[in-house]
Amino acid sequence: MAFDWEDHKSYMTVKRQKLQDQLEDVEGDGKIFSGVTIYVNGYTKPDADTLKEIICKHGGGYSYALTSRVSHVIATNLPTAKIKALSINSSKVCHPDWILDSVNAGSLLPTEKYELYSVSSKSQRKISFSPTAKKEAGPEDPPTKKDRSFVDEFYSHSRLHHLSTWASELKEFTSKNLPRAKRKFSMLSSGESLRRFGVKGVVHLDLDSFFVSVGLRDRPGLHGQPVAVTHARNKEGEADTTEVVGVSLHQSMSDVASCSYEARDFGIRNGMSVGEAINLCPSLTFIPYEFEKYHAVSQTLYETVITYSHLVEPVSCDEVFIEFSDYVTSWEELGDIVKSLRSEIEEKTGCKVSAGFSHNLLLARLATRKAKPNGQFHLSEEEVEGYLKETPVASLPGIGRKMKEELSKMGVSNCGELREVSLPKLREVFGPKTGYTLYCFARGIDNRDLTTKKERKSISVEINYGMRFEQISEAESLLTQLSEELQSRALDTGVLGSSISLKLKIRQKTAPQETKKYLGHGRCDNISRSQQLHIPTNDSGDISRVAISLLKQLSPNPSDIRGMGIALNKLSSSVKGSPVKGGKMADIRTLMTSSPGKRSPASKRSLGSVLKSERGGEEGASVSVMREERVEYQNTAAGDGCTSFESAMLDLPPASQLDQSVLLALPSDLQEEVFDSYSKRQDKERVTLEPVSTEPSLANPLFPPSLSSLSNGNPERFLNETRTHIKAWVALYPAGPKERDSTIFIQFLISLIDLNALEIPRIPQYWGGSFFVKFFIL
DNA sequence: ATCCTCCCCTAC
DNA sequence: TAAGGTAGGGGAGGAT
Ligand SMILES: Nc1ccn([C@H]2C[C@H](O)[C@@H](COP(=O)(O)OP(=O)(O)OP(=O)(O)O)O2)c(=O)n1
Ligand SMILES: [Mg+2]
């Protein structure tokens, strides 16, 4: 066999990388973080253990308690009050990125940009405390493994969670940095470039057995062997690891996240269980996850890629599309660029990359399959037909287990056979869109343009592992934790949701209590229900209130719950002054008549400093301050619609819109009350009040008040507090509130209904018309 | 037609 | 033990 230059080269690269790592280690020892001792507060990314490992490796100290030794507190997200409390003993409170970036930079970076209370700090997330760990973590109460919440613990070990998180991050990174990235090549005119043929040059990059490749950087002895990344452990080719359970590994249901190509020769595949894998290859070696390393490699991959083209479409942490149409004159030239791109990435990350390229996204992707491992392949226009003919349909993106099965029933297993099926037939079986896509893909046709940024449509949190409840209250408590996690993510991404949905996995009747996978979900039915809001939110209190209400509606048997998730849908932006795409300034009429769940208009304002000053010093102050940072309510500041107050009361919410779900959740006597007030109302004449001036109303920061600032559970206090707010609000207007302003109040009441805040004061007279009237007779 | 809700499927 | 998340495309079937 001829000398394999590629292999030799990669061997050298790895060797170099290894040397470099060792050098870094030597340099790092006692260097970067000498004199630095950190204390990690709460849940961070990376987690406390990882940070400890990093800091110690680079000469710093780690403390389990906030002692005087501590020079820096590390936290990802903290309420302002807590930051102040933590920083009193002159230690700085910094984001973990300070540590990561310092390591990357090879020197101690100034903390300035990473201090949580500084203006430039990247995010201010609220920490999610679990019910069991919500005690203040003070100096005498260091965080331990034990008081980490289930949610945090789970996520820190979940590969799929990391995969999703990184994908989101990289999408954000790309859309933010792509426009201002310094590029290696300058664009050609469309007369010179590939475009002169009316053709695109699309490259698809994908790291080879990503997790394994990263793991093997530090385990050169395992190169060329069947290796898999998994949580299950026995040997590792490393001496000190205990050979725990030779036999039990055969039954392990732990997933293989990634396996080497040598392992694939045995039939092992990503996603397989360890038990299956070891049966296929008893000599398979398992190595552990190293999430932070994967993260760093992904980051480097994307930093590198965006210097090659202004057209980059992120796919995942190890996969990306790049369009070169404007940078090359021929496919040969593109091939050379791809070669250098691949070696640059391998040089920087120590991981091998394969690349496929062709004239559209589909074919570039298919070409990558042929290129792997550690190669590149150009699928030319002439080759397409022949190549596709033998390509199994399951290789087409979007065709998975189910559709492959479905096609197989039709006698179709490769693209050549798929071509024989008529378009109408495909549409009949798979629906209009899917049918058409199949028709095109079978022919190598793909007219999609590469998209560099896509607007997020939803944000969600879910756990379908380890869910075992006896009481419904336990499930509710978990929903509360998930709500906090969701709030935290919504804050980070700057979104508000107008729709909240709850998703449950419920054990199937015939499925056994004990799942095959330890604490897995087993065979389940999925059920979901959503609730529209009139005012978008990112508040965990709002979210959990709605989620729990939805849970009650779905009324599952607590012991059958195997998974739960919450999603925010119909998103709008919470960033001040940032216009929402497609958003219109809402006039009163629009607001009054809009269905719940509609996107919020561009015009927004925060509760702002007035709310803060109004209640500063009161017990609820810190809550409202936090809320102020989170939620910015939409306003009715602009527009000239004139709807009478009376008609507003009559029109909103239309009976058809009054959320059935909320209604049904009420005791039946309350339901009747509500129906009653609706039916009475229809008989009434519509009364129009004084015409209202069309000038913009006084900016009103008092309404609506923060729900979480009101006394839930105590009807009398609730009412009184709300009255206080109304009085303060009215007092703002020398000549009394304009009609339009009262609509804000109406909106507020509606939102109370949305959020089930009114479920708490279970007093019939608060409901229906009398409820509204009561507020106005102050 | 088009929209909405509740799914199912797919990909990493 | 094991860490089965998450976003998006799209279909079925009903309401408008
Ligand atoms: N079921 C899966 C599939 C993938 N991954 C993770 C581990 C993989 O390393 C990474 C990238 O997925 P790929 O599909 O790109 O697979 P690999 O990179 O491992 O192999 P290759 O791309 O060479 O086929 O995502 C996972 O955890 N579980
Ligand atoms: Mg890969």
Explain how this protein is built.
- With 778 residues, the protein is α/β, with parallel strands linked by helices.
- Among the domains are: 16-105, Rossmann fold; 160-187 and 197-235 and 249-379, Alpha-Beta Plaits (2-Layer Sandwich), CATH 3.30.70.270; 392-451, Orthogonal Bundle (DNA polymerase, domain 1); 458-573, Dna Ligase, domain 1.
- The chain is built from 28 helices and 18 strands.
- The strands form five sheets. The chain has a five-stranded mixed sheet with strand order 9-10-5-11-12. It has a four-stranded parallel sheet with strand order 2-1-3-4, covered by helices on one side.
- Helix 21 (608-615) runs antiparallel to helix 22.
- The model is unreliable at 1-29, 78-89, 117-146, 236-246, 577-595, 598-703 and 758-778 (pLDDT under 50).
- The site of magnesium ion has 4 residues, from strand 5.
- It binds a DNA duplex (12 and 16 nucleotides) through helix 5, helix 6, helix 14, helix 17 and strand 13.
Layout: helices, strands, pairs:
Blueprint: H1 5-28, E1 37-40, H2 48-57, E2 61-63, E3 72-74, H3 80-86, E4 92-94, H4 97-105, H5 150-157, H6 159-177, E5 202-207, H7 210-217, E6 227-229, E7 258-259, H8 261-264, H9 274-280, E8 285-287, H10 291-305, E9 312-316, E10 319-323, H11 331-349, E11 353-358, H12 361-371, E12 376-378, H13 381-389, H14 401-409, H15 415-419, H16 423-430, H17 432-442, E13 458-463, H18 472-493, E14 495-507, E15 524-537, H19 540-554, E16 561-573, H20 588-593, E17 604-606, H21 608-615, H22 621-630, E18 632-634, H23 645-651, H24 660-665, H25 668-683, H26 715-731, H27 739-754, H28 768-776
Parallel strand pairs: 1-2, 1-3, 3-4, 6-8, 11-12
Antiparallel strand pairs: 5-10, 5-11, 6-7, 9-10, 13-16, 14-15, 14-16, 17-18
Helix pairs in contact: 6-10, 10-11, 16-17, 18-19, 21-22
The structure holds 2'-deoxycytidine-5'-triphosphate and magnesium ion.
It binds a DNA duplex (12 and 16 nucleotides) through α5, α6, α14, α17 and β13.
